[in-house]
Structures are given as structure tokens and as C-alpha cells.
Write a structure and sequence with these properties.
With 145 residues, this protein is mainly α. Helices cover 84% and strands 0% of the residues.
Length: 145
């Protein structure tokens, strides 16, 4: 998966995870409320929901770290900000422009430039890996003369 696909997938996955987190938090509050109102023991359910919430929060933090890693690889801080606002915060172009005091067209241009830079970074990484692989292959050649 390339960086652009990962950013777009992040946005979809993060929204889904945040939605699940909200549902689990609501279920947890309801279980706690039942426990208090009716004196029923919901300890197992409460603990299960807490565990599920922890797992969901861990997953979203992992996704955040991966996504920030991609974004922070860009040399232009304005391009970083555009990607952060667009993919992490899920803001529409108009809001991004207002936040950064740019026109919508300029923020979209920064976005295109950022995506081009990410593609170039990927090509350089692949090129570096291929060079390393060729170098290591050459290192395995033995001269028995």
C-alpha cells in the first residue's frame, strides 16, 4: 500500500474506530448505570467493555503513529499541516483553507504537492532497497581463485 492509499485508508479506519469507541463508551456508561440503579453485578460486562475500549484506543493510536510518520516525512510544514487537517482531523477543504488562511485552491495545490513528494519518497526508498539488495547480492559472490 502506498502512502496516499494509506492516508485515505487511515481516514476510513479512524472514523470507523472512533464510531466503535463512542458505542463502547455508551455501552460502558449504560452498564455502570445499571449496576448503580439496580444493584446488579455488571462487573464482568464492565471489565469486558473496558478491555474492548483499550484495544480500540490502542489500534487508533497505532494508526495515528503510522500516519504521522508518513506526514512528518514531508519537508514542507504547510504540506504536513494540510495532510494532518485533511486525513487525521477529517476537515473539508474549506475549513483547511480557513484554518491556514489560504484559498481552497492553494490548499489543494499544497495537497497535490505533498502527495507527489510522498510518491517520490516511496520511489527513493524502493530504489535504496533495490540498491542494498544488489549490493548484498554482490557481497555473496565468492572468488575461489
Amino acid at each position: 500500500m502506498n502512502a496516499e492509499e494509506m492516508l485515505k485508508a487511515y481516514r476510513a479506519n479512524a472514523n470507523e474506530l472512533k464510531s466503535k469507541i463512542r458505542r463502547k463508551e455508551k455501552q460502558l456508561e449504560e452498564a455502570k448505570d445499571r449496576q448503580v440503579r439496580f444493584g446488579e453485578t455488571y462487573d464482568n460486562r464492565v471489565n469486558q467493555l473496558k478491555k474492548e475500549l483499550l484495544n480500540l484506543n490502542t489500534e487508533i493510536h497505532r494508526l495515528d503513529d503510522e500516519t504521522y510518520g508518513i506526514i512528518e516525512a514531508l519537508p514542507n510544514p504547510n504540506a504536513q499541516k494540510v495532510l494532518q487537517l485533511r486525513y487525521i482531523e477529517g476537515k473539508p477543504w474549506k475549513d483547511i483553507g480557513n484554518t491556514m488562511f489560504y484559498s481552497i485552491r492553494w490548499t489543494q495545490k499544497l495537497h497535490r504537492q505533498a502527495m507527489q513528494q510522498l510518491k517520490m519518497n516511496e520511489r527513493q526508498k524502493k530504489g535504496g532497497r533495490q540498491h542494498e539488495e544488489r549490493s548484498s547480492d554482490l557481497g555473496e559472490i565468492h572468488d575461489y581463485n
